Every structure is written in structure tokens, then in C-alpha cells.
Amino acid sequence: MSVLSFGQPLVLLGLFALPVIWWLLRLTPPKPQTEVFPPLRILLRVMRKEETPHQSPWWLTLLRLAMAALVIFALADPVFNPRERLETGGEAVAIVVDNGWASASDWDLRVATAERLIADASDAGAPVVLGFTAEKPNVEIGPFDAEEARNRLRAAAPHPVPVDRAGVYGRVAGVLQTVPGATVAVLSDGLATPGDEAAFSALLGENAGSMVWIEPDQLRMAGLTGVDNQPDFFEVTAIRPSGDPTPRQVTAGAFDDRGRRIADTVFSFGPAETSATAEIRVPFELRNDFASIRIDGENQAAAVRVLDESSKRRRVGLISQAEADQAQPLLSPLYYIRRALQPFADLVEPESSDLAEAIPAILEQKPAMIVMADVGTLPDMARERLIEWLNDGGTLVRFAGSRLAAAENDEELLPVRLRLGERSLGGSLSWTEPQPVAEFPPNGPFSDLSPPREVAVMRQVLAEPTVDLFEHTWASLADGTPLVTGARRGEGMLVLFHVTPEATWSNLPISGSFVEMLRRVVQLSRNQGAIEGSDRAGGQTLPPYRMIAADGSLVPPGPDAQPLLLGGGERPVTIENPPGLYGTEEGVIARNLLAADAAFTPIARPETNLPVTEAVYAADGSRDLKGPLVAIALLLMALDTLAVFWMGGLFSRGRRGTGQGLAMVRMGSPDSGGRIA
């Protein structure tokens, strides 16, 4: 690229006139003489003589020549560091810009590049079709004139969502049917997405005349794909684009809900590695204060991961009246409960099986949830403390068994009223068969789970039929009898499994559904009942609370953000449901940009038979020198005027006195021809 160019180079021929200008400017009238004289003797001293012009000083001639040269250069429209003009032939120019999350870190550079294309289209008199791949489907894409396209470009902004190339490219291709042979400029974010091949085929179809391909010169972004609160540390997973052979280290910080940085970690990517994990080893209580994880220096939404209660570990107390049998651990009432809860909870157990000692000891550990396996009647003091803890927001999960079946109903510590004794299914004295699990009701936390077909229940404790029994039923058998019931008690939650926690009354404890059901209940305890147990049912919505902006900051919801519809499987991140937190101050659900299996794959330039011009994102570094040159010429003109006044004695007249009867006479002035003034 040349350093200097001229819009009107023929004007530079005026430089050949500088010698003539020099010859004309070298002549100047003589400087007027000033004398002090007695007024009565003036006539005696006047001498007539013919005045001849003197040559102007060399510096004044040089000043005027420079001024003339500057004017000539200014008229030639000089441009310093002129930009390279991109090919924008055809009847129109179609510009498609990726404005998803990956474009946020250098958005200004992308806008400057698009403005260059619009300027070239304006010079060619071609209309502009302008489309953005992360906007609503109903946004107008043109054609526009250059000024309107420039205004729309400046009003656009990146969004913290994935791009939708297929939808936007199809719309642009439809507009190009009216202006065939157009130049298509693709401003990519550098990352591939599913369906790119079909999208480019539609865009670069028979109506396109040429293509301008622009992508980042390198991909250096990093993103967070998952977190896992382990028993001893907080594990975070990060990814970077594939194809980078250099090792790299990035730092990340953990922040609380007030934005304070409370912990750090470092990700180390080896050569050509695209994924790295890091551990944050801080105390259990501090890990539960994590509200978000952010990668330093990454101003984009994928580098931030917001956390909700599901990422926090809670203490769960385990209580059983049965003595531990080390020889037969599978028969222990707590064996399968421990195995199910250990991956996502910190378990605490009392040293004694005496309920009068065990319950107070567990409550001193301040658990979020307590699991009681086949516990019958409680001691009065322990019962009162347990009810107080439950009403204050704790979650109590009870499992049936022979002790609970034989105990009297304790309505404050049971979600439903139970019949005395137990029901046997499929035995030699029974006419019924073991019952499978029915579809989960829509009013419970298991509503989106598939019923375990392999589970069969042989024995259970039965609930007394009541008008509100269905409202408290979270899981039931095929014959309609409850399997799991739940109810609120003050600020807390009370849950009852109508079978034992070991594989004696049913094979539910040895199924995968048992683990997921307990995990759901633990999630409820983490929120302390703030989000209803039916929040996962279809049709339920949560309002937007705090959104992740395109630059990774947490901001209030924008006008486009809509309530999040729960149930029905995982929903994609969109303009209406951007990443962030949904809910209220009492409880939120986190919605992050990247899935656990996400990957950053560089995009490949589409194969096409069209003429292709490749470029990179760059700001317009050209500078128009016409204005500065005219300004310098005007300054020199002012200096020339001051020099003429100085040579004419204008600045020295006022300093001469008129005392002692003397007068001032200017001799040989141009307008007097040497006469007395």
C-alpha cells in the first residue's frame, strides 16, 4: 500500500508554475524612509531622485513559493496512507456481518471494515444489502442507499448469542434475486457453526457475481463450558479454538453476588490442546459464595459462566436407627443414599444411632437437608428442634420401613397421613402383582423425567385418601398409589419416599432414576423452597433477572429479553432468552452460553467458482491531507501579511516621538514618487 496518493494528480502540474511565481514575487517596492526634520528647513533638504524597485528578501520569496506549493498540493486531494479499495462491482453490494458473541471483543474494527465496503459501494453508486446474523428474523435488510446503510451499521451491536447464518443468508439470497450479479461481502467471526455449508450455498447461488471474504487473522478467544463443585475443590473447564499449536495460560476469577473477586485459578493449554481444567481449592463455605466465573481479558459472553444453587454443594445429614453392619453394607439403610448423594453433596453422619443425640448433633452441622432412613417415633426434644429447623427452611427427606409403618402419624413430620402398617404386593398371600412406576405428575420436581420401566415395587406404606393427595404426589405407581409425596412446612420442604432406601421393598434404590430423584430434591433444598417444586413442569416460566451482555458483563434485562419457559428439554440461547439468570431475588436458574460439549472450530472459506477477494479486519487508517495543507497555507499567508507590514514600518511608527519641534516625513513612498508627505 502506498504511503501517499492524490485524488486529482493532474493538479500537480501547477508545480511547474513555481519559477514564474518566483520571478514575479522577487520584485518589491523599496522600504519607505522616515526622517526627523525641522519644519522650517524641509524645502532646503528635499532632493528629487528617481526611485527604482528593489529585490524582495529571499526569505519572503521562499515563504510565498511555499504557500503556492501548498495550495497546489491541497487542490490535488492528497491522502496519507490510502486504504486498499475492495472489489464491489455489480449492481449491488450485499454485506453480511456476524454480530454474535464472538464479535464483541473487536466490534469497532468490524464496523470500520463494513464502513469501508459501504464507502466503496457509494463511490460505485450501488445500493447496499446489509444483514446481521444475530438479529431478530424480522429486521429489515434492504436494499439501502449508502447513507442509510451506514446509519444502520452504526446502530447495530453484538449480541451474546450464537449466529444464525442459515436464516440470514437465506433472506439475503432472496433479496439478491432482484439485483443479480451483486458482490457478496462476508464478514465472519471466524467460528464454524452447524449448517454453514448449506447456508453458503444459498448465499453464493446463481445471483451472486463475486465474493469478498473477511475473517479474523487469528482466533484467540477462550470460553467456559462447565463447572463442578467437587467435595474438595471447585472444578472449571475451559476451551479454546482448535488448530492453535502454541501453549497458553489464562487466568480466571470467581466472583460473589456483589461482584467481589474471592478466588483465582489458572488454565494451562498444552500445544494443540483445545480443552483445559482448573481447580479452585478454597473452603467449602467460600465455594458456596461463588456467583460467577470469568476469564480475565476476555470481553465476550462465552468467557463468563453464571452459577445458581445447583452448582453449590450443601451439607446433607444422614440419620438411621439401624446399627451399621460392616459385614453386609448393602443391607445398610444408608448405603444407596450415600452412593447417590456423594457426588453433589457433603454428607455428615452422627456418631451415635440414638435419636436424642443424633438429631441435635446433625443440626449443629447446619445442614441444608436431612435424610432419615426408616425412623419411627422421635424423642420430644429432638422432634421440637427438628420441626424448628424444618420451618426455618430446611428440607427433610424420609424413607419408609418397618419402624415408620408401625409408628403413629406425626402430621408435622409427614407430608401426608399414612395408614397403619404396610402394603405387600406380589407375595404368596397377595392377589396383586408388583407395581411399576407410572408417569411422573406435572406438579412435582420429577415431571420431566422418564419413568423407570425396570423399577417394580413389592411393598410400600399407603397414604390415606384425601382430596389434596394428588397435589402432594410427586411420583406414583401404576395403580395410582403414591410412591413419593411432598409438602411445605413453613419455609422448608418435607418429602417422603413410601419405600425403603435399600433394595428390599423395591429395586428403585439400585436404579439410575434414584440418583436423579435425590439430586432434584437436593436442588430444592439448596433454594430453600424459593423456587417452587413444580418449576420444571411444562408451561412454567421464570422472568429474566440478570443477563450476560455481549462483553461478558452482568446487566439488567433488555427490552428483548422474555421469560424463560421451563420444561420440554434444553432450549437454545436466543435474542429472546439470552444467557444469564432467570428468576427473582429469592432464587434463580442459570442459563449459560456454552454447552458442556461445545467446541471452537475455525470456519473454512466456502468453495465457490465466483471471483474471491480475501481481506482482514482493519480500520481505515487513511488521512485526508487537504484540510491540513489549506490550514498551513492560510497560516503562511498571515505570516506574509505581517512581514509586509513590518517591512513597511507599520510596527515602528507609533514608537517615534514628536517632541523638540520635529515632524515625521515619509520619503519615497510608492504613492508619492518621492514627494513630501
Give an overview in words:
The protein is built from 16 helices and 36 strands. Strands 18-17-19-20-27-26-25 form a 7-stranded mixed sheet, with helices on both faces. Residues 48-53, 527-538 and 657-677 have low confidence and may be disordered.
Topology:
Elements: E1 4-6, H1 18-25, E2 27-28, E3 33-37, H2 42-45, E4 54-55, H3 58-75, E5 78-80, E6 93-97, H4 107-124, E7 128-132, H5 146-155, H6 165-176, E8 182-187, H7 196-203, E9 208-214, E10 223-229, E11 234-239, E12 248-255, E13 261-269, E14 275-280, H8 284-287, E15 292-295, E16 304-306, E17 314-320, H9 335-341, E18 345-348, H10 355-364, E19 369-373, H11 380-391, E20 395-399, H12 402-406, E21 423-424, E22 435-436, E23 456-457, E24 459-460, H13 469-472, E25 473-476, E26 482-489, E27 492-497, H14 512-526, E28 541-542, E29 544-548, E30 554-555, E31 564-565, E32 580-584, E33 587-591, E34 612-615, E35 623-624, H15 626-647, H16 650-653, E36 663-667
Helix pairs in contact: 1-3, 3-15, 4-5, 6-7, 9-14, 10-11
Rg, nearest Å = 43 Å
Oligomer: single chain
Write out the strand line-up for the largest beta sheet, numbering strands in chain order. 18-17-19-20-27-26-25
* Secondary structural class: alpha+beta
Low-confidence stretches: 48-53, 527-538, 657-677
Shape call: elongated
How many H/I helical runs?
16
Distance between the termini: 64 Å
Defining key terms:
7-stranded mixed sheet; alpha+beta; 677 residues
Briefly say what this structure is.
With 677 residues, this protein is of the alpha+beta class. The chain contains 16 helices and 36 strands.
